[in-house]
Design goal:
The complex is a heterodimer of chains A (about 160) and B (about 150).
Chain A lengths: L11 E8 L2 H11 L3 H4 L1 H6 L9 H17 L4 E12 L8 E13 L6 E11 L5 E12 L14
Antiparallel strand pairs in A: 1-3, 2-5, 3-4, 4-5
Chain B lengths: L11 E8 L2 H11 L3 H4 L1 H5 L10 H19 L8 E7 L8 E13 L5 E11 L5 E12 L7
Antiparallel strand pairs in B: 1-3, 2-5, 3-4, 4-5
Classes of the chains: A alpha+beta (about 160), B alpha+beta (about 150).
């Protein structure tokens, strides 16, 4: 089990493969982000984006699917507090194949919960050409190793 | 049509309501965030949160849906969004919770490179007890009236 104490600042990972289909773009948008440039090819062609693009929240959902499939098993992650600096850098279009890169930025024991610590992880979603389509800094909550001395985790500032 | 020029700093839009069912939590969780607390009711009962909770990304999707419905109702000339400056999931969303929201305009300024204006908004969803479940600050693009119907 990878506990809070075991997370190494600077650690990088690259994983995932997610093929984006027109059907899934339209299905996600129909339920969660019903704007013309996510739903209708003709309207999208006339729009600012020149063609159908995925909802940015759909890209976020595909990101978390790849994270859960490849990076959560075997860790003491209990969830996330949120994220900062999420940028939708390039449109995601039907046929794009996405993957994820992560880097651990820093980690801090929780002030309010002695059994938890938060880890800031920079995440990037890449397309098949290696272009960054989305980036963010996730604030991930880990359990601390049972019995570990408080405030004395390896790597603490 | 409501353009960038019609957006006023300080105005607060009232978003509609959305009730999150167990079925919806499981459907989103199993598709996009298949961790036990979002995808497996039995495992969730014995887990950290003591029951099934919605994925934070699902809660954000609810925010987007309510926002898109409001944009459509106002006929706002939305041109997408470059990003979210901060998002905090502040309380778990559980089956049966009814979420309502507000979105306040914090700042508005014209883009230097595109025929749009940028609008920074602070949006928040609360549950039926008035507890905030998600707070986010994001920037959206709204077309300018003088740019015509792009």
């Amino acid at each position: 089990m990878i506990w809070f104490e075991d997370v190494e600042v600077g650690q990088r990972a690259r994983f995932g493969r997610y093929e984006v289909t027109r059907e899934e773009i339209v299905e996600f948008a129909g339920q969660w982000d019903p704007q013309p440039f996510h739903l209708d090819e003709a309207a999208a062609r006339e729009s600012f984006f020149g063609g159908l693009i995925a909802s940015g929240w759909h890209t976020g959902a595909m990101f978390i699917r790849m994270v859960v499939d490849h990076a959560v098993a075997g860790t003491a992650v209990v969830g996330a507090a949120g994220f900062d600096d999420l940028r939708w850098r390039r449109p995601v279009r039907p046929g794009d194949v996405l993957s994820v890169e992560t880097e651990v930025l820093d980690k801090t024991p929780s002030r309010s919960r002695a059994d938890l610590g938060s880890v800031r992880v920079a995440g990037r979603v890449l397309d098949a050409r290696g272009e960054v389509v989305m980036s963010l800094v996730s604030i991930v909550l880990y359990r601390r190793r049972p019995g570990a001395p408080l405030g004395a985790a390896a790597g603490d500032p | 049509m409501r353009y960038f020029e019609d957006v006023a700093v300080g105005e607060t839009l009232v978003l509609g309501a959305h009730t999150v069912s167990e079925e919806e939590i499981l459907a989103f969780g199993r598709r996009y965030d298949p961790q036990p607390m979002h995808a497996d009711p039995e495992a969730a009962r014995h887990g950290f949160y003591g029951g099934l909770i919605a994925s934070g990304w699902h809660t954000c999707a609810v925010m987007m849906r309510l926002t898109a419905q409001t944009i459509a109702r106002l006929e706002e000339a939305s041109a997408g969004a470059p990003g979210i400056e901060s998002c905090r999931w502040r309380a778990p969303v559980r089956p049966g919770d009814t979420l309502t929201g507000t979105s306040e305009v914090l700042a508005a300024w014209p883009s230097r490179s595109k025929p749009v204006g940028l609008v920074r908004r602070r949006s928040e969803l609360v549950n039926q007890r008035g507890e905030p479940v998600v707070t986010l600050v994001g920037v959206a693009m709204v077309r300018r009236r003088d740019a015509g119907a792009v």
